Amino acid sequence: MTEISRLTRAIRTGLEWDTAVGAVVPPIHVSTNYRFETPERRGPYDYSRSGNPTRDLLGTALGILEGGQPAVVNGTGMGAVSTAVLACTEPGDTVVIPHDCYGGTWRLFTRLAERQHLELVSVDLTDTDAAVTRVRELRPTLLWLETPSNPLLRITDIAALAEAGHAAGAVVGVDNTFSSPVRQQPLDLGADLVLHSTTKYINGHSDVVGGALVAREPELAETLAYWANTLGTTGGALDSWLTLRGLRTLPLRMRQHEQNAAALVEVLTRHPAVGAVHYPGLPDHPGHQLASRQQQGFGGMLSFELAGIPAVEAFIDGLGCFSLAESLGGTESLVCHPGLMTHAAMPPEVQREAGITPGLLRLSVGIEETDDLVADVAAGLDRAGAVPR
After folding, report:
1. Among 1-10, 35-44, 104-113, 264-273, the least confident range
2. Which residues carry this modification: N6-(pyridoxal phosphate)lysine (predicted)?
3. Quick one: which of 39, 113, 122, 212 could link to 99 by a disulfide (CB 3.0–4.6 Å)?
């Protein structure tokens, strides 16, 4: 048999797995509990919080895609972040996070620091030399990366930070949600752990909430699984089945997401109402060269700056192909105001430090017809540009 790529193996995970009736698509195992042979002898499964065949298929597929151990599948992305923190730290440990990370991640780490579970330091990890120096000084137990970042699409050098983190004794985790595993594989670049909000691109249809953790080494994977079971953060069977179904079309969807995003970037960069466009595919983006090396595409996320809230409101009011909503990575196009929505947990001064301005909008570009999205955005920019400054 010829060698099969990671992507094909992941897409085919679970197919023809059923031995009862020979179904090509795997069945959903919704049973809460499983029969013991005797009180002392259990089968491969006993209780679905601890293990579920459908969830395991999704975990296997994600592990193949990322080149790591089978994923520990969680009920939400933040459940996965919580599992990772408790698995990788002890009270008093130092944790380094990006200064511009996702608002929910910032909130979790900040609250844990306030309760003295950990010592938290936020660092601009996109300045590689300065970040490496800080990691050497701080010697964190956990170094948390997010690249591309949410919502400003900043790029962090995974290989350089992983090397520095390991030299300092840290576990290096990477939130890979924005790129998806078909566009970036952090474990191949030296990371120990990869996080996905599977709610986003992996499921891809905005109808499931979930998260996943993929470890490079078996020992860490076992620790993560222990904590997910102990905390009760593991995902359900139906959600896992739907996410695995969504994953099978991920490569096709990502191509259209990227094609549409690139077309919108052209419109945005030419329009006088736009002060800045944040997209790593632009040659003048500060992380363009790095993204070109460590990613296999620039993705379907972008953000841009308008003059302020009145311009933002004018842009949004009248859109026909974009829904004003949080989340991302679905087939439908979404527009979001990070400062008031996804990053509202951050106080104004923290938002300013992260570069989140009142005029910032984030687009999750869907897979609709390109011309329709271009026309919709262009009309919105004309409305924004007509607002008196």
Report:
1. 1-10
2. 200
3. 122
The catalytic position among 56, 100, 102, 134 is 102
Residue 94: φ, ψ to 5°: -90, 135
Q: Which position among 134, 154, 183, 200 bears the catalytic label?
A: 200
pLDDT (tens digit per residue) in 160-190: 999 999 999 999 999 999 999 999 999 999 9
Which one from 6, 49, 139, 245 is the annotated catalytic residue? 49
Average pLDDT of the residues of the chain: 97
Q: What are phi and psi of 120, to 5 degrees?
A: -110, 135
Spatial distance between the Cα atoms of 118 and 111, rounded to a whole number of angstroms: 10
Query: Would you call 102 a catalytic residue per the annotation?
Result: yes
Query: What are residue 346's phi and psi, to 5 degrees?
Result: -80, 130
Note the CATH number of domain 6-245. Answer: 3.40.640.10
The answer to whether residue 372 is catalytic is: no
pLDDT one-digit tens code per residue, 47-67: 999 999 999 999 999 999 999
Distance CA(11)–CA(31), nearest Å, equals 25
How high is the pLDDT of residue 130?
A: 98
Architecture of domain 249-386: Alpha-Beta Complex (3.90)
Instruction: Tell me what pLDDT residue 389 has.
Output: 77
| Global pTM value | 0.96
| Catalytic annotation present for 175 | yes
Q: What is the dihedral of CA 184, 190, 192, 193, to 10 degrees?
A: -10
pLDDT at 363 over 90: yes
Active-site annotation holder among 100, 157, 175, 192: 175
CB count in 10 Å sphere of residue 349:
8
Burial 103-136 (b: 16+ CB within 10 A, else e): bbbbbbbbebeeeebbbbbbbbbbebeebbebbe
DSSP state of 383: H
For residue 3, the model assigns a pLDDT of 84
Place of tokens 């739907």: 242
